[in-house]
Write a structure and sequence with these properties.
Strand order of the largest sheet: 1-10-9-6-2-3-5
Largest sheet: 7 strands, parallel
Helix content: 25-40%
Number of helices: 7
Structural class: alpha/beta
Number of strands: 10
CATH topology: Rossmann fold
EC number: 3.5.99.6
CATH class: Alpha Beta
Keywords: Carbohydrate metabolism, Hydrolase
Catalytic activity: alpha-D-glucosamine 6-phosphate + H2O = beta-D-fructose 6-phosphate + NH4(+)
Bound molecules: 2-amino-2-deoxy-6-O-phosphono-alpha-D-glucopyranose
GO biological process, one term: glucosamine catabolic process
InterPro entries: Glc/Gal-6P_isomerase (IPR006148), Glucosamine6P_isomerase (IPR004547), Glucosamine6P_isomerase_CS (IPR018321), NagB/RpiA_transferase-like (IPR037171)
Radius of gyration: 17 Å
């Protein structure tokens, strides 16, 4: 694992955006795996700025997002499709039909998940997967479990994730209880992985991921076994490492 320590969130965002920009420049038709949550927002802001200043071209790449709430439509302002449109896709020259997010409106979960795996396979796999980190070590929506889930699947969100994500919803009962997420196997198949982590509240879990045992109880700990992982984290997040 390569670890970059930054002084704060802004520097973390800039560093992560540089790594993504380098990927786009080196392989203009690359497949980016993208993430939601508050941590990557600054990374997307930098990418949008560089696009606007003429330094980046998104027109030949594709993207696949990690996850989507089950039951939310793309127009719902809490859906991850909506998040991606407003934070990135609407502001750059990416072809919308080359951006993929699991279909939260497909009620048949097997169908939704199989279709998503097929999309990733048809694209030829993911070149660079961006990840945020949940407080319990989840990546995408792969929650602590007895074993590592391999492919895209439907999950019941844990109480801690519901609590962490309720800040984005009007009331707690509006938070969906299920989501479709890439599996750990899907994530581990990406050629490169980039993890962004910020803040004191992530310090304990980040230390476990870097130095603790590899266990499905801490899903992101499996990243220790991936050959090309870069963690970009600020001082606060790295304070226990
Ligand atoms: C959600 C997402 C994850 C994300 C996590 C952390 O649960 N499914 O992909 O990494 O939140 O979010 P934040 O960056 O807001 O702490």
């Amino acid at each position: 694992m390569k670890i970059y320590r930054t002084k704060d969130y802004d520097e973390m965002s800039k560093k992560a955006a540089h790594i993504i920009a380098a990927q786009i420049v080196l392989k203009p038709d690359c497949v980016l795996g993208l993430a939601t949550g508050s941590t990557p927002v600054g990374t997307y802001k930098n990418l949008v700025e560089w696009y606007k200043s003429g330094d980046l071209d998104f027109s030949t790449l594709s993207s696949c997002n990690l996850d989507e709430y089950r039951g939310l439509s793309p127009e719902n302002d809490q859906s991850y499709r909506y998040f991606m449109n407003t934070n990135l896709f609407d502001h750059v020259n990416i072809r919308k039909d080359h951006t993929f997010v699991p279909d939260g409106q497909e009620a048949d979960s097997n169908k939704a998940c199989q279709m998503y795996e097929q999309i990733i396979q048809d694209l030829g796999g993911i070149d660079l997967q961006l990840l945020g980190l949940g407080h319990n070590g989840h990546i995408g929506f792969n929650e602590p479990a007895e074993e590592f889930p391999k492919t895209t699947h439907c999950v019941d969100l844990t109480e801690s994730t519901i609590q962490a994500n309720k800040r984005f919803f009007e009331k707690e009962s509006d938070v969906p209880r299920q989501a479709y997420t890439m599996g750990i196997g899907t994530i581990m198949s990406a050629k490169k992985i980039l993890v962004v982590v910020s803040g004191e509240d992530k310090a304990e879990i980040l230390n476990k991921i870097i130095n603790g045992p590899v266990t499905p109880q801490v899903p992101a700990s499996i990243l220790q076994l991936h050959p090309d992982v870069t963690i970009v984290a600020d001082n606060a997040a790295l304070s226990q490492v």
